[in-house]
């Protein structure tokens, strides 16, 4: 008795339809693309260049000189605790401060009820005369 194999369609003469996709060419193309991508991407260095100080025995810099300017509640201006007579005295001191090669820091401390106009005048004079190292101080209680 012979075994009969069905090799085709209904009548046995047609070839059977292949239902699975051949993925070998697709995988080959993807591998080639991945290799091309890896080769063409430049090597990136993950480093940060820093200029670190050398281990020298240099003298540490001295703290900067500080000039304290206080604008009082009545609009009067004090320079390191000394009451200034008028605006021209303030301008003369600010010009001398800006002209120095080692310009000290100017700390402007307005009192609680100091008029805004007086503080703005001091700031405007300092800016016009070229004072570059200036800061507002006195609000330490709000730093919480």
How would you describe the overall organization of this protein?
- The chain is of the alpha/beta class and 144 residues long.
- It has a domain at 66-142: Nucleotidyltransferase, domain 5, CATH 3.30.420.
- 31% of the residues lie in helices and 14% in strands.
- Helix 2 packs parallel to helix 3.
Condensed summary:
This protein has a five-stranded mixed beta sheet, with helices on one face.
Q: Look up the CATH topology of one domain.
A: Nucleotidyltransferase, domain 5
Q: What quaternary form is this?
A: single chain
Strand tally:
5
Computed structural class: alpha/beta
CATH architecture of one domain: 2-Layer Sandwich
Side-by-side strand order of the widest sheet: 3-2-1-4-5
Low-confidence parts: none
- Shape from CA axes? elongated
Order of helices and strands: HEEEHEHE
Overall residue-averaged pLDDT value? 83
The top-level CATH class of one domain is Alpha Beta
What is the percent of helical residues? 25-40%
Q: How would a crystallographer describe the biggest sheet?
A: 5 strands, mixed
Number of helices: 3
Using the CA coordinates, give the radius of gyration: 41 Å
Strand content: 5-15%
Topology:
Elements: H1 24-40, E1 66-71, E2 77-79, E3 82-83, H2 87-99, E4 105-110, H3 116-129, E5 134-136
Parallel strand pairs: 1-4, 4-5
Antiparallel strand pairs: 1-2, 2-3
Helix pairs in contact: 2-3
What are the salient characteristics of this protein?
144 residues, Nucleotidyltransferase, domain 5, alpha/beta, elongated, 5-stranded mixed β-sheet
């Amino acid at each position: 008795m012979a075994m009969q194999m069905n090799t085709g369609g209904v009548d046995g003469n047609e070839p059977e339809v292949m239902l699975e996709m051949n993925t070998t060419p697709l995988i080959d193309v993807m591998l080639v693309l991945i290799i091309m991508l890896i080769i063409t991407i430049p090597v990136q260095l993950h480093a940060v260049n820093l200029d670190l100080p050398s281990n020298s025995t240099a003298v540490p810099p001295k703290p900067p000189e500080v000039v304290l300017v206080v604008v009082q509640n009545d609009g009067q201006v004090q320079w390191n605790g000394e009451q200034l007579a008028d605006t021209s005295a303030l301008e003369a001191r600010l010009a001398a401060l800006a002209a120095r090669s080692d310009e000290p820091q100017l700390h402007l401390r307005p009192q609680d009820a100091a008029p805004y106009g007086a503080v703005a005048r001091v700031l405007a004079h300092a800016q016009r005369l070229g004072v570059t190292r200036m800061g507002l101080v006195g609000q330490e209680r709000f730093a919480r």
